[in-house]
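hiii so my PI (J.) wants the whole complex modelled not just the main chain, which honestly fair. so below is everything: two entries, each one labled with what it is. i double checked the lines twice but i was tired so who knows lol
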Amino acid sequence: KQEVTQIPAALSVPEGENLVLNCSFTDSAIYNLQWFRQDPGKGLTSLLLIQSSQREQTSGRLNASLDKSSGRSTLYIAASQPGDSATYLCAIQSIKKTSYDKVIFGPGTSLSVIP
Amino acid sequence: SQTIHQWPATLVQPVGSPLSLECTVEGTSNPNLYWYRQAAGRGLQLLFYSVGIGQISSEVPQNLSASRPQDRQFILSSKKLLLSDSGFYLCAWNRLATNEKLFFGSGTQLSVL
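here's the output for the full assembly
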């Protein structure tokens, strides 16, 4: 059974710092991994999707890496801004034999960027 | 372009009343559809997912049910709500054939009193 964990649960940093959020998963039979952002009371917005054959994806100040063999992904945010304050969740789309399976989320990391 | 609609945005219901939340997707065909619940201060819990019309997989035992009467319509229902059903309900879709991102609706905040 796939389990997804995220460390730390909460993070507070001063504006301008670079930071890393971590995601771990127990089953390496994945189809893809995604990083999402959620603002309070809102739906989720997909930031980056890494396919199982890829090692990283970049979008602006965001860089996500994937190491399937160790069951880990990191989300790197460069030069953090107060507008980056939100909860960040990682999610795994699993593969079950030859069919696709559900998307499972980690508990999230709550990020606060202090001006 | 594809869009996902979810309604209502907020709902206050008494214990024991029925529930129907609707989600529709536009601009795509044969999507995978998902219902998630997010309780206050907790992570996203997958409730149901569907790979096609009439095909529903349930993740957790509960008094909720889901139906997919049309390709791009996903409905979450309950005959009798419990206090523990309160939470933020999110509908989502993706298309696995092209390894696309998971897109979410704006959510329904359900309060059962």
